[in-house]
Amino acid sequence: MAELLDLFWQFMLFSLLAFGGGGTVLGLVDRVAVADKGWITPAEFSAAVGFTFITPGPILVLAPFVGYLVAGVPGALVATLGVFIVPWALAMGSAHRLRQYLHHPRLRAFGKGAGPAIVGLFSLAVLTIARSSISNVAMVVVALLAGVLMTRTKLHPILILVGGALAGLVLGIPGLGDAIPEVRIP
User: What DSSP character marks residue 56?
Assistant: First the structure.
């Protein structure tokens, strides 16, 4: 029961801090779920993040995934409830007044300060994912190619993810990937 309450509490906090979208708290989810609580491994976090980016609302998919790994169906349910309850309550409580505050100087200043903090949180999530998924030179090439395709083309992100997954499948063929030099990210 204590673990379920902890899942609910943590995901409620994540949703409270997810200014600008759920992806902004990936670094925080990584820190809590992987490093602090040990609920999931870095590889499981990477797999979950990869999967969530082919679905709508990454953090909304990540919550039940982590919850399920920690405590089965009850864990998935409480993590999902936790991640939804704060945004729902805030939306319900503030929808009628939101319009008059959109251009308020303090709210705009808040956004300017929160932006760099979000960059730091994203950076932590990127580093964690890189450490557990970039293991050799071929995976560095896949990561760089994905970045180039995202910035230089209008190719849909799902197609880029599918391409990366196919590259992983091919490189996972026994004997094929063994000759590729390893890479360690500090």
Answer: S
| Best CA proximity match to 22, nearest among 47, 51, 56, 45 | 56
Rg (CA), the chain: 19
The closest alpha carbon to 34, from 24, 52, 46, belongs to 46
Domain span at residue 146?
135-186
Q: Are residues 118 and 149 in the same domain?
A: no
- The total number of structural domains in the chain stands at 2
Over residues 92-117, the pLDDT tens digits come to 887 667 667 767 788 778 778 877 88
Structural tokens at position 62: 């990540």
Q: Are residues 95 and 141 in the same domain?
A: no
Q: Which of 21, 22, 6, 24 is nearest to 82 (CA)?
A: 6
